[in-house]
Amino acid sequence: MNITNSNGTVTLHNGIQMPYFGLGVYKSKNGNEVYNAITAALKEGYRLIDTASYYNNEEGVGKAILDSNLPREELFVTTKVWNSDHGYEITLKAFDVSLKKLNLDYIDMYMIHWPMPDVYIETWKALEYLYKKGLVKAIGVCNCMPHHIESLIKECSIKPMVLQNEFHPRLVQQDVLDFCKDNNIHFQAWSPLMRGRILENETLVAIAKKYNKSTAQIIIRWDLQKEVCTIPKSVHAERISSNANVFNFQLTSEEVATIDNLNTNERTGAHPDHFIEHFAKKEKGIT
Fold first, then answer.
1. Which residues does the annotation place in the binding site?
2. What's the rounded Cα separation, in Å, for the pair 135 and 106?
3. Is 55 a catalytic residue?
4. pTM for this model (two decimals)
5. pLDDT per position as a tens digit, 162-218
6. Alpha-carbon distance 224 to 188, whole Å?
7. Which domains, and CATH codes, for the chain?
8. CB of 176 within 8 A of CB of 182?
9. What confidence category does residue 61 fall into, taking pLDDT thresholds of 50, 70 and 90?
10. Residues annotated as binding site for substrate?
11. Which one is predicted more confidently, 286 or 135?
């Protein structure tokens, strides 16, 4: 991955160019909050916006994109099908709803948000249909382990182009990264900053001091040097700008390995094999 600037790209296995750096909008409130965040990001050179039906902000995302007056082909917009919308026909209907909310003619990447047991293969076939119809430029999965993807490869006709999983210095998952590389699937990080929980880590602070950077910038740079596409979330213009300021320095291979060694397999979200229990507890108010 040739890391040069905030709108550089990787080539997916179907030939589509996807920015390796973008803005995640999870928990960004629909309306002014998400609108202002995207407006600030686009002014900073961001060209990938990652949303989902579950985020309930697709309308705000679409309005910000429309008002930016940027050529549509310069932008890469991702959204996702939620757990309650799995199944072939239901997924197609969910896609139509997202497309209308975003006020777009097509989606750059449509993804399965979580691999619902027994139905995610059927859901994937709906994504394949949308891809073949030209309504989406690329299709991918989120929150999957290699065995989920192996099932798709075995049962379906199109291999996922992207896997988006939780990824940060406490959750490196080198085996999953290696699986993706071996299968020509690009890995993309959600929660790359561990929702702020690792920003005071002494090792990261020391590396940040050396480069006169923030710990967030060190982590984002580490992502990119590990060939991990990344979508840090912020609704603050100054942080959106700061997160993009990672292209004028390079970590040493020793520093990358040092950050790798911070891994503890700690998650802020659910494990892909146990997410149904996680969301059931969440609905009951159990943490």
1. 113
2. 5
3. yes
4. 0.96
5. 999 999 999 999 999 999 999 999 999 999 999 999 999 999 999 999 999 999 999
6. 10
7. 9-283 (3.20.20.100)
8. no
9. very high
10. 113
11. 135
Which H, E and C letters describe the chain, residue by residue?
CCCCCCCCEEECCCCCEEECECEECCCCCCCHHHHHHHHHHHHCCCCEEECCHHHCCHHHHHHHHHHHCCCHHHCEEEEEECHHHCCHHHHHHHHHHHHHHHCCCCEEEEEECCCCCCCHHHHHHHHHHHHHCCCEEEEEEECCCHHHHHHHHHHCCCCCCEEEEECECCECCHHHHHHHHHCCCEEEEECCCHHHCCCCCHHHHHHHHHHCCCHHHHHHHHHHHCCCEECCECCCHHHHHHHCCCCCCCCCHHHHHHHHCCCCCCCCCCCCCCHHHHHHHHHCCCC
Torsion over CA: 279, 168, 44, 234 (sign): positive
> Which residue out of 20, 55, 110, 131 is catalytically annotated?
55
**Cβ neighbours for 199, distance < 8 A, ≥ 6 positions apart:** 193, 214, 215, 216
**Integer Rg of the chain from CA:** 18
Distances (CA, A) of 117 to 34, 110, 176, 210, 276: 32, 19, 20, 47, 9
89: exposed, middle or buried (Cβ count in 10 Å: 0-12, 13-18, 19+): exposed
